[in-house]
Every structure is written in structure tokens, then in C-alpha cells.
Amino acid sequence: MGRRRRIPRGVCRIVGVAALARAGLFRHESGARSATIDAPDPCDPSEPAGLLVEVEVHDRDAARVTIDGQVVEACARPGIGGGLFWGFLRPGCGRPVRHLYRPSGGDAYRCGECWAVARPGRDARPGLAAEGLARRVAALVADGTRAARAAREEVVG
Questions:
Q1: Residue 134 vs residues 32, 36, 50, 55, 139: alpha-carbon distances, Å
Q2: pLDDT value, residue 23
Q3: For residue 5, which of 97, 123, 100, 95 has the smallest C-alpha distance?
Q4: Residue 102 CB-density burial (10 A; 0-12 exposed, 13-18 middle, 19+ buried)
Q5: Burial letters 117-153, b for 16+ CB under 10 A, else e
Q6: Would you say the pTM of this structure is higher than 0.90?
Q7: pLDDT of 74-130, one tens digit each?
Q8: Which of 23, 36, 41, 120 is a Cys-bridge partner for 50, taking CB atoms 3.0 to 4.6 Å apart?
Q9: Mean pLDDT of all residues in the chain?
Q10: Residue 31 φ/ψ region, left for φ over 0, alpha for ψ in the -120 to 50 degree band, beta for the rest
Q11: Largest Cα–Cα distance of the chain, in whole Å?
């Protein structure tokens, strides 16, 4: 059984806890808040970039987040200086994550591990893996050397 193919981050709509916190949705007091955050769909520019997110804080460290009609639980743990460090709870196992992804054409927001999203700095496109990139660079160098030799022979000979 082989490894699952990785999905590039560039084809995913990404919702991060930090964007919700900057919008003021995670406050210490209980209550419901909503905001529109910027989370464009990179593969469908006709879809609106704004994404309506509603957060209902139950306790100081628990909240229910509604993203595009999908409900996701969130929790907080103590942070530096008495603040809180918020995270989404993964729908499958319940571990906290900082970002949720929905690939273009995907049906729900899930964590990067569930969708097999490539981590930043790692491109999942075929041909750009380390060995594929090395082969392409070697081929380009060889072609350049051949072209340089041919040009030199034309000038000299």
C-alpha cells in the first residue's frame, strides 16, 4: 500500500484560528459573535472571498465555530502571559489544530492530516519532488552545455 498523494496548499481554502482571533471572535466573555473573514478559494475566483464565521463561546476555554454551515468545536489552553491559545478540535480524533482546509471541490473543512495537505515548503505537484527537480535541473544544465558547445563551434568553425 503506497503513500497517499499530497494536496497542494494552493488549491485549498484555509481558515486559521489566528484570523478568527484577530477578528475578535474569541473573547473571554461568553456569547455568540460573527464576522466575515478573508479566505478566498484559489481555484474558483467567482466564489466570494469573504467567509461568514460564527463563534459561540460557551466557557472561558470552549467554543463552537460555524464555518460555511459546518460546526467545528474549538478549545483553548493556557498561553503565555495569562492569555489563551485557541485551536480547532479535529473532527476525527479531537486533537487541536490551528488551521482547517477545504480543497476546491471538497465537501467539508478538515485538518491538513485528514485531507493530506502538503506542508508549507513542500510542493505536491509531480515532477517537483526533490529527485524530479534534480533530474530537471540536470537536464537543463546538460542542454545548456550542448547549446553552448554548438554556438562555440559555429563561431570557431
A1: 52, 43, 40, 47, 9
A2: 86
A3: 123
A4: buried
A5: bbeeeeebeeeeeeeeeeeeeeeeeeeeeeeeeeeee
A6: no
A7: 998 888 888 788 899 987 778 889 999 888 778 888 888 888 887 766 554 554 554
A8: 36
A9: 77
A10: left
A11: 84
Exposed / middle / buried, residue 51 (Cβ in 10 Å: 0-12, 13-18, 19+): buried
Q: Listing from the earlier edge strand, what are the strands of the sheet with 31-38?
A: 31-38, 50-59, 62-67, 70-78, 84-89, 96-97
Cell of 35: 464576522
Are 104 and 7 in contact, with CB atoms under 8 Å apart? no
3-state secondary structure of 98: coil
8 A C-beta contact, residue 63 and residue 56: yes
Name residue 4's amino acid.
Answer: R
- The strand pair at 50-59 and 84-89 is best described as unpaired
Per-residue pLDDT of 46-59, as tens digits, reads 777 788 888 998 88
- How far, in Å, CA of 129 to CA of 121, rounded? 11
